[in-house]
What we know:
Blueprint: E1 2-7, E2 10-15, E3 20-33, E4 38-53, E5 55-57, E6 66-68, E7 80-91, E8 97-107, E9 110-111, E10 122-123, E11 126-136, E12 143-148
Antiparallel strand pairs: 1-2, 3-4, 4-7, 5-6, 7-8, 8-11, 9-10, 11-12
Amino acid sequence: LNTLRTVNGAPGQFTTNAADSTIYGIELEGQYLLTDDLIFNASYSFLHAEFDKLDSLDPRRPALGELDLAGHKLPYVAENTITAGLSYDKDIGANGELTASINTTWQGDVWLREYNDPFVDLVKSGTKTDASISYKFVNQDFKVTGYLTNLEDNVDKTNIFISPGFIGMSA
């Protein structure tokens, strides 16, 4: 864990190891050939990841002192993730090969920091869908691919940096 702390009046970023954590999970995935050219794929993962023992000072709330974070979720870990998609592969003879795919992923809530503060650290569950299309030219090592990512046009926090009040503005 990377934590910003003030030591002797000066800010610094420190790497801290959690005393204990429990992590376990399962992942299932599969593919099903719908036709000779069309494949359906799906996966599900469950990941339990929480601190068993960790005491840490939240730079947003230093007046609270060291906080007992036992039972808090580890940062950047979604407990549940589901993905499903279709892939279409078509050999178009002397003209080349066409591949198109679309995949959508639903990811459960994610915490950005070990403090699990719902106002600052929580990224709510949501979906992200990506699509691509490729054309491979016959007898050549040349392929053209186009991508569309995040078709929902979601904007999610992916990181957070908490600064002490004397450096710009505090979150």
